[in-house]
Amino acid sequence: MIRKRPSRREILQATAALTAAASFGAMGGRAAAAVQPHAQIDAVLRRATEAKEVPGVVAMAATDKGIFYEGAFGARDLANGPEMTPDTIFRLASMTKAVTSVAAMQLVEQGKLALDAPVPDIDPALGRPQVLEGFDAAGQPRLRPARRPITLRHLLTHTAGFVYEFWNADALRYVEATGTPRVLSGRLAALQRPLAFDPGERWEYGINTDWVGRIVEAVSGKSLETCFREHICGPLGMADTGFVPSPEQHARLAHVHQRQADGSLEAQPLAAPSIPEFYAGGGGLVSTAADYLAFLQMLLHGGTLNGAQILRPETVTLMNENQIGDLPAGLMKSCLPALSNDVDFFPGAPLRWGLGYMLNMAAGPNGRSAGTVGWAGIFNSYYWLDPVRRVAGVIMAQMLPFADPAILRLYGQFERGVYALLDAR
Asked: What is the pTM of this model?
C-alpha cells in the first residue's frame, strides 16, 4: 500500500496557501487562514469528538500519488476507552458492497458472468422471483411472478427490486407478517423475500449485493471470504479486512454507539467473535480506514495498485458510469428511526448509480467533482472517489442511526478540508 507522507516542502507550501486555508469554512475567518490545512482538519475532527458529537473517528485521504491525510480522534468506547487509533477495526456494513461488486466484475472480465443475462438460477428468489403487490384482508402478502428476469446489472445497480425493510414500509410489513428474519440478523433466510417492483423499473436500495455475493460464491466455487482474500484483499495488502475478525483484531474493534433521545451517545456491548451463517456481500466485512483506502486507491489507479492488477481500466471506467439512465437514486425514507434517519445526502442534486456505488452527476457542495462515486455503511462510515481531481477519502465512525446529522456535518467538513489540501499542494 502507498503510504506517502507529506514532504517538508509540501507542508511549507500548505502553510503558505492562505487562500486554500481560508476556503475551509469550518475554522472560519482570519483564524482559519493562519492554520495550515492539515491542522484545520485535525481541529475539526478533534472538536467534534471532544464535544461528544461523535464518539470517535478515523479519517484518511489519498491522491493517485499516495496518502496525504490521516487522523484518529475520540474513543472506541466513550464509557471505557481506549482511544481511537489509525488501526481501529470498523464494521464496514454497506461499504462491503463495493468490494463485492469488484469481485463480480472480475468474473465478468473472465467471461464467467454477464451483466445483462439472467443471473444464475442458484435460488428461487433469483431464478423465479415474485413481486409483492400488497396484502389481503387478513394481512397476508399478495405475490405475483416478476415480469422479467433479474440480471447482474439490476443487482449491482439496486434496480432488481430487492429492498431493505429499514426504508420500505411494505418490506417491513412483509417480514413481520411472515416471520422472515431481519437483514441485520445475519441469517441466510433474511434473503428469502419477494421483490418490491419488477426488475429494471426503478432504483431502491436493498439486499441486491448480498445476492451478488451468493452468485460469486456459486460461480467461483469458493467462499466469498476466500475470493476476497485471494483476488482483492490479499493482493492489495488489506490484512485487516475480512468477515471474521481474529481475537487480536476483535480487540481493536470500535463499539457501536446509539444516539439517545437527549442527543447523547451510548456504547453498545461488543458481541463475541463468531462464524456468520453466510458471508454477506452486502454488509459483512470489518476493516480499517487504511485498508479501505487501499481499495479506493486501486480504483483511483484504474484497477491496479502497487503492481497488483485487480480490474482492467475499462472495467473501472464502466463501474464509474451512470448505469440507470434517468432513474433517480440515493433517497431513502426511514421506516425504523433507531436504525436510520431519512437519507438525502445532496438535496436537490441529480444522483444516479454505477456498478456498485452512488454517482454524483453534478459537482458537490464540499468540493467533489461531477462524476464522483461513493457510498456509506449503516454505522455511519462514508467514502468518496473523485476521478477528476484524482482523490479519494474515507471517514469511519460506529454509531446509529444512519445518516446522523453530526457525522454528516463532519463528513462535509472533512471533504472541504481535503480539497483545501489539494489546492494547497
From this structure: 0.92
